[in-house]
Design goal:
Elements: H1 10-23, H2 36-43, H3 47-59, E1 63-66, E2 70-73, E3 78-81, H4 88-94, E4 99-110, H5 113-119, E5 126-136, E6 139-149, H6 165-172, E7 177-187, H7 191-197, E8 205-214, E9 219-227, E10 232-235
């Protein structure tokens, strides 16, 4: 039996003990934790108390409940800093992850009305449309739909988009990126996005709408990015 002292908030002590076991590696990411029945016997408490402890672990993002399967230690979460303009590649590689992109669509289209507006182009102007699945350590985390004006990137290739888009823009094209105007929206993904990211029905995700601006005043990119939000922590640093 674990060394848990009786307290009025006993479930918090049990949650703390399980957290320590996770920290020490007794339970690894992706591992199931014991059932409520087994934990109630181990800690000599009711299943109601165990359920409250597990709910506390869920709220702190350490474990997740899978319907009909049990409770599991959460896999590694990736951090996305909302006030840092970094590409997916830069974000992942700075954390030591192995990054790969799969191009699902690569074509030249007439810009839809919304895209033309965001890029400050005439409606039906020619743009590249590229859909990429972004993977870290072979795990699909992001679907990115990107629209780029042809006149700014006449030499953009399929092979280029298998790598870092920002590196191509800044190193190859020698453009200087000034900023990105971003809007985050909670959505229920459509069937295509659910299939690509292996998301269950009725699970909300975050969609980022991003418009990129160069230092010369030209809008160079409009993207709609779908995050598998269960694998991400979105952080803001607020300074006073």
């Amino acid at each position: 039996m674990s060394n848990i002292k009786p307290k009025s908030h006993l479930y918090l002590e049990i949650a703390k003990d399980i957290k320590e076991k996770i920290r020490q590696g007794e339970f690894l990411p992706g591992d199931p934790i014991p059932s409520e029945n087994l934990l109630s016997k181990e800690y000599a408490v009711s299943r109601v108390t165990i359920r409250k402890a597990i709910d506390d672990l869920v709220e702190t993002n350490l474990v997740e409940k899978k319907h009909g399967s049990g409770t599991y230690v959460k896999e590694k979460s990736y951090e996305h800093k909302l006030y840092s303009l970094k590409s997916f590649t830069e974000d992942m590689e700075s954390s030591g992850e192995k990054v790969r992109s799969e191009i699902l669509r690569y074509e030249i289209i007439e810009a839809p009305k919304k895209v033309a507006y965001q890029l400050n182009r005439e409606e039906n102007a020619k743009v590249y449309f590229i859909r990429r699945k972004r993977l870290a350590n072979e795990k699909a985390l992001v679907v990115e739909d990107t629209y780029l004006p042809i006149e700014l990137f006449p030499d953009l290739t399929y092979e280029t988009m298998m790598h870092s888009k920002y590196e191509f823009i800044e190193s190859h094209r020698q453009y200087k990126i000034k900023e990105s105007q971003q809007i985050f929206l909670p959505i229920l993904p459509n069937n295509d996005i659910k299939k690509i990211l292996a998301i269950d029905d009725n699970v909300p995700i975050l969609k980022l709408e991003s418009t990129g601006l160069l230092t010369n005043g030209l809008y160079f990119e409009y993207s709609e990015v779908y995050f598998k939000s269960e694998d991400y922590n979105f952080t803001i640093t607020a300074k006073r």
